[in-house]
Amino acid sequence: MKKLIITLVSLVVIAAGLIFSGPFIAINGIKSSVKEKDSDRLSTYIEFDLLKKNLKEQFNSEMLKATSADPDNNPLGVMVAGFASQVVDGLLDTYLTPSSIALLLEGEKPDQYRSTFNDQAPAKQETSEPLEKYSVKFVSHDRFYVYTKGNYDQEIKIVLQRFGLDWKVTNIIFDGLY
Length: 178
Hints:
The protein contains five helices and four strands, in the order H-H-H-H-H-E-E-E-E. By secondary structure, it is of the alpha+beta class. The protein has one domain. Strand 1 (about 135-140) and strand 2 (about 145-150) form a beta hairpin. Residues about 110-125 have low confidence and may be disordered.
């Protein structure tokens, strides 16, 4: 009976260790993937369908705020607000890639290095290591927040959610990036 209790307690401790260390293992994997510019490995830490849905809601909300701030002074704002969802869908389909997400996690704008007029990218400003300084918060047994600062001191909140034993990015909430 004593061996059974010790075995059960050991299993509970191991399970708790896996649950509580999982997000930190994912954060270190994301950091090294971004630093090494390994988009294939980074994509294993991202739940793209859920991230796209969450970013779409976030951008639609911001576009609606911007276009319908004062409908009396901006009569076209209501019409533009109607197209906001379609514009956001197109942008997310284009820019929601592992390399663009790596730029977002570094606090950069994904289109900052793309140019429609020439193929040369502007000189990149000196950047710090991705996720160099961050704070964390367990919200529940299957949700975890990572708070960090981008290169321009905007706050970035990365939401990780547990899928079995794996932790994946399901939302990136940023303040002042766009």
